[in-house]
Amino acid sequence: MVDRELDSLVRLLDDPDPTVREAVFGRLTELGTVATVQLRDIINGKGELQYDSELHLAAQDALSEIGMRRMLDGLRKVSESEADKSGGDDFDLEGATLAVALHRYPDLDAKVYRSKLDTMAELLRWRTRESNVGMEAIREFRIYLVRQQLWKGVSQNKYHDPENSCLNSVIDRRRGIPVTMTVVWLLLAQRLGLPLHGVSFPVHFLARYKSDDEDFLIDPFNDGVVVTEEQCKTFLQSIGVEFHPGFLEPVGGRHIVARMLRNLAEIYQESEPRLALGMEEGIRILSEGE
Fold first, then answer.
1. What is the pLDDT of residue 17?
2. How far apart are CA 268 and CA 162, in angstroms?
3. Are 68 and 28 in contact (CB under 8 A)?
4. CA-only gyration radius of the chain, Å
5. pLDDT of 195 strictly over 60
6. Nearest CA to 265 among 133, 49, 100, 136?
7. Residue 26 contacts by C-beta under 8 Å, 6 or more apart in sequence?
8. Are residues 31 and 123 in the same domain?
9. For 112-138, what is the mean pLDDT?
10. Do residue 98 and residue 165 come from a single domain?
11. Can you give the CATH number for the domain in which 221 is found?
């Protein structure tokens, strides 16, 4: 029954009536993985349907639409769940960043990547068993992630690849942009109970370790090196931006995910404006939950 329905839906993908297309998108989203598999078969030239350029493009649009809808649904669930809690920053950064990845990976199994982070954290827990706080703990992060696991920031010419904003892809490749590299450090630190926070520094996202005893800035993108306020000032001067102390203050999870979405909106603005609008909708969802 599902195969017959899918076949009918696929044949309606290139229907010029927007009402029909909207209904098709909605139903394909409901059908889940079986629909995305068939859409990928069309895109890759597989299956029984004869290749048709318009159908091919329609299938790409449908897969993209499914991913965007799942991303927005995921962000709503995270935002609504957090809204019921009180006190502190209870925002589910991990759930939200995995939700963002759904726009490119609609069938993403979040459990797989939560497990990978769990495994990494357990190895770090063992490494930091004798130095589980402050600078010494961060030193172990650097040894494990940078020297042993070869995590590294992407080159400048690959900054605008959307894959760098998908947490699953960042974990698989051990490559990312400043904000997503920092997110990985934050999620690992969270598992270890370390007071590491995101810092939405202009142009280059950072992390800040802040406890009663120690307070310092880290650059996960650049091998986890410790940076000073003076270095941050010098950097801003070099690009003509006036320094403000607030640039170095910790920010909450909503702010971090919103920055990821803004990056993606900028990337998609010219090539895929519909996706750019979806990212802006995601930002709106996050702001409504504040």
1. 84
2. 9
3. no
4. 21
5. yes
6. 100
7. none
8. no
9. 92
10. yes
11. 3.10.620
Structure tokens that stand for 117 in this block: 């982070």
Token couple for 157 = 């010419």
pLDDT digits (tens, 9 = 90+) for 212-252: 999 999 999 999 999 999 999 999 999 999 999 999 999 99
**Are 53 and 113 contained in the same domain?**
no
pLDDT tens-digit series, residues 57-75: 777 888 888 999 999 999 9
Write out the residue range of the structural domain in which residue 211 sits. 91-288
With a threshold of 0.85, does the pTM exceed it?
yes
Task: State the alpha helices, DSSP H only, in 84-177.
Answer: 93-101, 110-127, 134-141, 167-173
Within-domain flag for 195 = yes
Torsion of CA 11, 16, 19, 23, to 10 degrees: 20
CATH of the domain at 40: 1.25.10
pLDDT over 70 percentage in the chain: 93
Q: Are 185 and 163 in contact (CB under 8 A)?
A: no
Q: How many domains does the chain have?
A: 2
Give domain status of residue 80, yes or no: no
Backbone phi and psi for residue 109, each to the nearest 5 degrees, phi listed first: -95, 100
CA angle 69, 70, 73 (to 5 degrees): 85
CA 146/CA 148 separation, integer angstroms: 6
Same structural domain, 275 and 143: yes
Confidence of residue 177 (pLDDT cuts 50, 70, 90): very high
20 and 156 co-located in one domain: no
